[in-house]
Amino acid sequence: MTTTTPRTVLVTGGNRGIGYAIAEEFIREGHRVAVTARSGEGPAGSLTVAADVTDSASVDAAFTRIEAELGPVEVLVANAGITRDTLLMRMSDEDFTDVVDTNLGGAFRVVKRAATGMIRKRFGRIVLISSVVGLYGSPGQVNYAASKAGLVGMARSLTRELGARGITANVVAPGFIQTDMTDALPEDTQKQYLSTIPAARFATPDEVARVVRWVAGDEAGYISGAVIPVDGGLGMGH
């Protein structure tokens, strides 16, 4: 049995879906867990802090509170994200910039704020939640795919900048996950998606959460700049 050092963990967008499951997983492992949310609450046992990742002052205030109550953030899971799906010819400038500013810009803001404490401590785990769509592409998701692909370049640049300071930066790229969003899809659409997945099923949020927890743990200290798919084989070769 391996022992895991208790860490202060922050999961952005931890009030629902994958983020909620990730926060629960770290709580189960005995970590001190904070989540940011624009509304709603994280799981029992977590500290929920209101924050908007598109606003640097809001991010700074959230970190200041977390540091005061739980200590400096040692594990950052940048999960907050939005979608504004529509075909390219119908996509407005706002549809594009809002998604990129939240999904990619938001990750930049929280990583930058967390990095100060990680550099000082000479330890850090940065996990960026991307998507199979960021590597595979998807019609109607030019904005979302661009934002999620950008996280790969971010993680690899962070690895080169911060790797010598005991900090890793990795990307976890989920495929189709069984959440309220997928449950709401028409049955025909769900069947169409399932037909493209070699595993022939959607993942559970817990399956993503366990991978995130592992890559943020003591055992994965020599893994950095990696893209870890949790997609049932959907994006193989990408």
List the helices and strands and how they pair.
Blueprint: E1 8-12, H1 17-28, E2 32-37, E3 47-50, H2 56-70, E4 75-78, H3 93-121, E5 124-129, H4 132-136, H5 142-162, E6 167-174, H6 180-183, H7 187-196, H8 205-215, E7 227-230
Helix pairs in contact: 1-8, 2-3, 3-5
What's this, in brief?
With 238 residues, this protein is of the alpha/beta class.
Mean residue pLDDT: 95
Unreliable runs, pLDDT <50, ≥5 residues? none
Going across the major beta sheet, what is the strand order?
Answer: 3-2-1-4-5-6-7
Q: What's the CATH class label?
A: Alpha Beta
Largest sheet: 7 strands, parallel
Spell out the CATH superfamily: NAD(P)-binding Rossmann-like Domain
Number of distinct beta strands: 7
Class derived from helix and strand content = alpha/beta
- Principal-axes geometry comes out as globular
Q: How far apart are the first and last residues' alpha carbons, in Å?
A: 34 Å
Keywords:
alpha/beta, 238 residues, Rossmann fold, 7 strands
Tell me about this structure.
This protein has 238 residues and is α/β, with parallel strands linked by helices. It has a single domain, classed as Rossmann fold (3-Layer(aba) Sandwich), CATH 3.40.50. The protein contains eight helices and seven strands; from the N terminus they run E-H-E-E-H-E-H-E-H-H-E-H-H-H-E. The chain has helices at 17-28, 56-70, 93-121, 132-136, 142-162, 180-183, 187-196, 205-215; strands at residues 8-12, 32-37, 47-50, 75-78, 124-129, 167-174, 227-230. Strands 3-2-1-4-5-6-7 form a seven-stranded parallel β-sheet, sandwiched between helices. Strand 1, helix 1 (17-28) and strand 2 form a beta-alpha-beta unit. Helix 1 (17-28) packs across helix 8 (205-215), helix 2 runs parallel beside helix 3 and helix 3 (93-121) packs parallel to helix 5 (142-162).
